[in-house]
Protein backbone atom coordinates (compact mmCIF):
# COMPACT_ATOMS: atom_id res chain seq x y z
CA UNK A 1 0.00 0.00 0.00
CA UNK A 2 2.88 2.36 0.75
CA UNK A 3 4.35 1.71 -2.69
CA UNK A 4 1.03 2.62 -4.29
CA UNK A 5 1.07 5.97 -2.48
CA UNK A 6 4.63 6.60 -3.67
CA UNK A 7 3.69 5.72 -7.23
CA UNK A 8 0.67 8.00 -7.11
CA UNK A 9 2.74 10.90 -5.77
CA UNK A 10 5.10 10.65 -8.75
CA UNK A 11 2.18 10.21 -11.13
CA UNK A 12 0.64 13.42 -9.80
CA UNK A 13 3.79 15.41 -10.65
CA UNK A 14 4.05 13.91 -14.15
CA UNK A 15 0.27 13.98 -14.90
CA UNK A 16 0.07 10.21 -15.38
CA UNK A 17 -3.01 8.07 -14.74
CA UNK A 18 -2.19 5.12 -12.47
CA UNK A 19 -4.57 2.24 -11.82
CA UNK A 20 -3.77 0.91 -8.36
CA UNK A 21 -5.12 -2.59 -9.01
CA UNK A 22 -2.84 -3.08 -12.00
CA UNK A 23 0.18 -1.97 -9.98
CA UNK A 24 -0.62 -4.38 -7.14
CA UNK A 25 -1.18 -7.25 -9.60
CA UNK A 26 2.18 -6.47 -11.24
CA UNK A 27 3.99 -6.46 -7.87
CA UNK A 28 2.28 -9.71 -6.88
CA UNK A 29 3.17 -11.44 -10.15
CA UNK A 30 6.79 -10.27 -9.91
CA UNK A 31 7.04 -11.68 -6.39
CA UNK A 32 5.45 -15.00 -7.39
CA UNK A 33 7.76 -15.45 -10.38
CA UNK A 34 10.75 -14.32 -8.31
CA UNK A 35 9.95 -16.82 -5.57
CA UNK A 36 10.33 -19.64 -8.09
CA UNK A 37 13.97 -18.64 -8.64
CA UNK A 38 14.78 -17.76 -4.99
CA UNK A 39 14.81 -14.00 -5.60
CA UNK A 40 14.39 -11.33 -2.97
CA UNK A 41 10.99 -9.69 -2.67
CA UNK A 42 10.43 -7.00 -5.25
CA UNK A 43 9.39 -3.53 -4.18
CA UNK A 44 9.28 -0.26 -6.00
CA UNK A 45 12.59 1.61 -6.11
CA UNK A 46 11.15 4.74 -4.50
CA UNK A 47 14.45 6.21 -3.30
CA UNK A 48 16.04 5.84 -6.73
CA UNK A 49 12.98 7.37 -8.39
CA UNK A 50 13.01 10.25 -5.90
CA UNK A 51 16.66 11.01 -6.64
CA UNK A 52 16.05 10.84 -10.40
CA UNK A 53 13.00 13.06 -10.16
CA UNK A 54 14.67 15.70 -7.96
CA UNK A 55 17.75 15.83 -10.18
CA UNK A 56 15.60 16.17 -13.29
CA UNK A 57 16.51 12.98 -15.16
CA UNK A 58 14.38 12.37 -18.23
CA UNK A 59 15.83 9.24 -19.86
CA UNK A 60 16.90 5.72 -18.99
CA UNK A 61 20.57 6.71 -19.23
CA UNK A 62 20.38 7.86 -15.60
CA UNK A 63 19.58 4.27 -14.57
CA UNK A 64 22.63 3.04 -16.48
CA UNK A 65 24.84 5.60 -14.74
CA UNK A 66 23.41 4.58 -11.35
CA UNK A 67 23.96 0.89 -12.14
CA UNK A 68 27.61 1.59 -12.99
CA UNK A 69 28.03 3.57 -9.75
CA UNK A 70 26.49 0.74 -7.70
CA UNK A 71 28.67 -1.83 -9.48
CA UNK A 72 31.80 0.24 -8.78
CA UNK A 73 30.81 0.60 -5.14
CA UNK A 74 30.14 -3.12 -4.71
CA UNK A 75 33.35 -4.16 -6.42
CA UNK A 76 35.83 -1.73 -4.93
CA UNK A 77 34.39 0.00 -1.87
CA UNK A 78 32.74 -2.92 -0.05
CA UNK A 79 35.82 -3.67 2.12
CA UNK A 80 35.70 -0.12 3.47
CA UNK A 81 32.08 -0.51 4.59
CA UNK A 82 32.42 -4.04 5.96
CA UNK A 83 32.95 -3.05 9.60
CA UNK A 84 30.60 -0.08 9.51
CA UNK A 85 27.33 -0.70 11.39
CA UNK A 86 24.19 -0.68 9.27
CA UNK A 87 22.72 2.01 11.51
CA UNK A 88 25.46 4.42 10.42
CA UNK A 89 24.98 3.65 6.74
CA UNK A 90 21.21 4.05 6.97
CA UNK A 91 21.57 7.34 8.84
CA UNK A 92 23.73 8.67 6.00
CA UNK A 93 20.96 7.85 3.54
CA UNK A 94 18.31 9.43 5.77
CA UNK A 95 20.35 12.61 6.18
CA UNK A 96 20.92 12.77 2.43
CA UNK A 97 17.17 12.57 1.81
CA UNK A 98 16.40 15.29 4.40
CA UNK A 99 19.15 17.71 3.41
CA UNK A 100 17.44 19.08 0.31
CA UNK A 101 19.11 22.46 -0.24
CA UNK A 102 21.64 22.13 2.57
CA UNK A 103 24.41 20.43 0.62
CA UNK A 104 27.21 22.14 2.57
CA UNK A 105 25.98 20.71 5.87
CA UNK A 106 25.74 17.28 4.30
CA UNK A 107 29.27 17.58 2.87
CA UNK A 108 30.62 18.49 6.30
CA UNK A 109 28.88 15.51 7.91
CA UNK A 110 30.00 13.18 5.13
CA UNK A 111 33.62 14.35 5.33
CA UNK A 112 33.61 13.81 9.11
CA UNK A 113 32.20 10.31 8.62
CA UNK A 114 34.69 9.41 5.89
CA UNK A 115 37.53 10.81 7.99
CA UNK A 116 36.49 8.55 10.85
CA UNK A 117 36.21 5.50 8.59
CA UNK A 118 39.50 6.06 6.78
CA UNK A 119 41.44 6.97 9.94
CA UNK A 120 40.36 3.68 11.51
CA UNK A 121 41.26 1.80 8.33
CA UNK A 122 44.67 3.49 8.07
CA UNK A 123 45.29 2.92 11.80
CA UNK A 124 44.60 -0.80 11.49
CA UNK A 125 46.70 -1.10 8.32
CA UNK A 126 49.54 0.81 9.99
CA UNK A 127 49.49 -1.47 13.03
CA UNK A 128 49.38 -4.52 10.79
CA UNK A 129 52.40 -3.33 8.80
CA UNK A 130 54.22 -2.35 12.01
CA UNK A 131 53.63 -5.79 13.54
CA UNK A 132 54.82 -7.55 10.39
CA UNK A 133 58.15 -5.69 10.41
TrEMBL record:
<dbReference type="InterPro" id="IPR011547">
    <property type="entry name" value="SLC26A/SulP_dom"/>
</dbReference>
<keyword id="KW-1133">Transmembrane helix</keyword>
<feature type="transmembrane region" description="Helical">
    <location>
        <begin position="24"/>
        <end position="43"/>
    </location>
</feature>
<dbReference type="GO" id="GO:0055085">
    <property type="term" value="P:transmembrane transport"/>
</dbReference>
<protein>
    <recommendedName>
        <fullName>SLC26A/SulP transporter domain-containing protein</fullName>
    </recommendedName>
</protein>
<feature type="transmembrane region" description="Helical">
    <location>
        <begin position="55"/>
        <end position="74"/>
    </location>
</feature>
<dbReference type="GO" id="GO:0016020">
    <property type="term" value="C:membrane"/>
</dbReference>
<dbReference type="InterPro" id="IPR001902">
    <property type="entry name" value="SLC26A/SulP_fam"/>
</dbReference>
<keyword id="KW-0472">Membrane</keyword>
<dbReference type="Pfam" id="PF00916">
    <property type="entry name" value="Sulfate_transp"/>
</dbReference>
<feature type="transmembrane region" description="Helical">
    <location>
        <begin position="104"/>
        <end position="124"/>
    </location>
</feature>
<keyword id="KW-0812">Transmembrane</keyword>
<feature type="domain" description="SLC26A/SulP transporter">
    <location>
        <begin position="8"/>
        <end position="98"/>
    </location>
</feature>
Amino acid sequence: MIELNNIQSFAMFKNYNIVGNNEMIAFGMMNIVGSLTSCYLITGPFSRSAVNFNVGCKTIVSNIVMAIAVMFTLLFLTPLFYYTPLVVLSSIIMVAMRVGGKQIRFLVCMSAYLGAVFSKYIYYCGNYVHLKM
